[in-house]
Amino acid sequence: MQATSQAAASNLPVHSKAQRVGFLVRGGHQLIIIALIVILGLAIYTVQPRFLSAYSIDNILRMASIYGIVALGMTLVIISGGIDLSAGSMMALGAAFGAGLLGTAFGAVNPISLPPVLAILVALAVTGGIGMLNGMAVAKLGIPPFVVTLGMMTVVRGITFIFADFTVGSVPGSAITFMDPLFSWLGAGSFGPVPTTAVLFLLLAFLLAMTLRYTPFGRAIYAIGGDAAIARLAGINIPAVIVGVYGLMGVLAALSGIVQAGRLSSVSPLMAMGYELDIITIVIVGGASLAGGRGTILGTVLAAVLVSMIDNGLTMMNVPSFYQYLVKGSVLLAAVILDQWYQRCRAA
Predict the structure, then answer these.
(1) Which residue of 19, 26, 104, 262 could cross-link 183, Cys pair, CB 3.0 to 4.6 Å?
(2) Above pLDDT 90, what percent of the chain?
(3) What is the Cα–Cα distance from 133 to 71, expressed in whole angstroms?
(4) What is the pLDDT of residues 190-249, one digit of tens each?
């Protein structure tokens, strides 16, 4: 009888510490973010009642969508084991090309005048191509993603200044100020009470979530981030996947910049300067691992709302900008520490 009991016990599933922690992170992480959104929202509301006004919520949704669209691309990059520090510069370049090619900028001197849809497509193609160059440098030349994208961040910012000067032709560094119905609808329009940007963000999030879950490309991204050597042995074309991921990152960054330009009807060459911290914070807080191989689109969507709430709440409470950097940096550091703890538990 005792032998039978022991045999039965030996057939029961064994849950290691790593498995329990893994379940907690995968299954409960989104719930934790939702709880933080509720708790934080109520806490800020007690200090600043206008925080839950219709105007404030609309602003949070628009900010979350602008951050979130480019964060979707960063999610794919980080899952694959990489990182992209040129995201903010890509946003500025995409917005500058999109707005500058319209030919409607105030004081415009460039002879180019394209229909809005074509101008947007050209902007997406340019930044997508630059993103693919990042991917080729990483996959083909073996240069670390941090080094490649750090250099490209400066190069792209320089191209943005040059193109803005070409478009406006006034004082170097001048903004491209323009008006266009399509851009304004993307950046400031609404479907009833829901901002257009939020609808676009959620649609892109759904498409990318389905891509990661149900397509060979999505599964290859996880495989490469988990273990590139095993992915290569499995027959995955690693360079093609990496180039595709970084190219998609460039497209989404430009689209986010175009939405921002439509909201402001202006593109400064300094647009999105320093956004990289916010974008990476969103992705890591959303549950992606800097080591690669782990992350979800849902986590990124929820984290984008959380970070935007923090931004909007601190601004409404008139908290100085340097304290805001302190808060966001602390949030990022806490998320990285939690990720490292999880990695050690997996290795145990």
Answers:
(1) 262
(2) 74
(3) 19
(4) 999 999 999 999 999 999 999 999 999 999 999 999 999 999 999 999 999 999 999 999
Tens of pLDDT, residues 75-90: 999 999 999 999 999 9
Task: Check: CB of residue 33 under 8 Å from CB of residue 285.
Answer: yes
Biggest CA–CA distance in the chain, Å, is 92
Residue 60 Cα distances to 70, 198, 278, 299, 326, angstroms: 16, 10, 14, 17, 20
If we measure between CA atoms, which residue out of 251, 204, 278 comes closest to residue 90? 251
Q: Helix 238-264 and helix 116-139: axis angle, to 10°?
A: 140
The number of beta carbons lying within 10 Å of the beta carbon of residue 21 is 17
**Which range has the worst mean pLDDT, 129-143, 164-178, 287-301, 324-338?**
324-338
- Of the chain, the end-to-end C-alpha distance in Å amounts to 34
Domain ranges of the chain: 66-275
Nearest one of 91, 83, 61 to 307, comparing CA atoms: 61
**pLDDT reported for residue 322:** 80
Q: Which amino acid is at 318?
A: N
The alpha carbon dihedral of 21, 338, 38, 46 has a sign of positive
Spatial separation of the C-alpha atoms in residues 154 and 15, rounded to whole Å: 48
> Encoding tokens for residue 281?
């914070």
Residue 183: name the closest of 278, 304, 101 by CA: 101
Q: How far apart (Å, rounded) are the C-alpha atoms in residues 87 and 32?
A: 27
